[in-house]
Write a sequence for this structure.
């Protein structure tokens, strides 16, 4: 079966697969790079099962950014000598952003950005949910008559026992 490549710009949830030609390469006369082959894992998408490869370049100017991406996406330890550390990327789910680009007069869809599966919005939501839970617990302790998270029980008497008229 022939490989089918992503042919529409967009953001895709993908699974990293083992690279057929190894992770690292340095073609003659070109910049060294790491390749991260990804397969779209979105059954609802017409791109499901399609492949794209993200390239992280390892030149003096781009190496730091490539390493930062690998650490952020895979929690990579930064050790280029540890092939097992790179192999740990296989099977990991990522978000891949693909955009159109023109090369030699042809328009192609290429993987531009490799991101962690959990978006910043989702991470922020997780942090918010933890803080919210903490605030609600404190409110329940401080104001038990409000029945936070359950049915509201109106307070009919103040702390001195007098009836509250409203």
């Amino acid at each position: 079966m022939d490989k089918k490549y992503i042919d529409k710009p967009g953001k895709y949830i993908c699974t990293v697969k083992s690279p057929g030609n190894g992770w690292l390469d340095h073609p003659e006369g070109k910049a060294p790079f790491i390749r991260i082959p990804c397969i779209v894992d979105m059954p609802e998408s017409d791109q499901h099962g399609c492949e794209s490869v993200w390239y992280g370049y390892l030149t003096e100017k781009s190496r730091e950014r490539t390493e930062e991406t690998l650490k952020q996406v895979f929690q990579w330890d930064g050790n280029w000598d540890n092939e097992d550390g790179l192999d740990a990327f296989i099977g990991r789910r990522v978000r891949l952003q693909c955009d159109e680009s023109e090369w030699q007069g042809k328009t192609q869809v290429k993987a531009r950005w490799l991101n962690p599966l959990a978006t910043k919005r989702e991470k922020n939501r997780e942090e918010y949910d933890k803080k919210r839970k903490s605030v609600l617990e404190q409110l329940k302790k401080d104001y038990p008559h409000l029945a936070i998270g359950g049915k509201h029980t109106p307070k009919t008497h103040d702390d001195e026992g007098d009836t509250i008229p409203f």
In short: The longest strand covers residues 93-103. The helical segments are 63-74, 83-87, 120-142. The chain has a mean pLDDT of 88. The radius of gyration is 25 Å.
